[in-house]
Amino acid sequence: MNKNSILTWLVASMVLFGAGLLYCNLTGKRILGSSVEKWEPKGKQNHK
Fold this sequence. Notes:
Low-confidence stretches: none
C-alpha cells in the first residue's frame, strides 16, 4: 500500500467513526430523554 491509499483509508474510517458516534449520541439522548420523561413523574409520586 502507498501512503495515499493509507491516508484515504484513515480519513474514511475516521469519518465513519465520527458519524457513528454522532448517531449513537443523538439516538442515545433521545432514548434517555424519553425514559427520563416516563420515569420522572413516578419518582416524584414516590417521594410524596
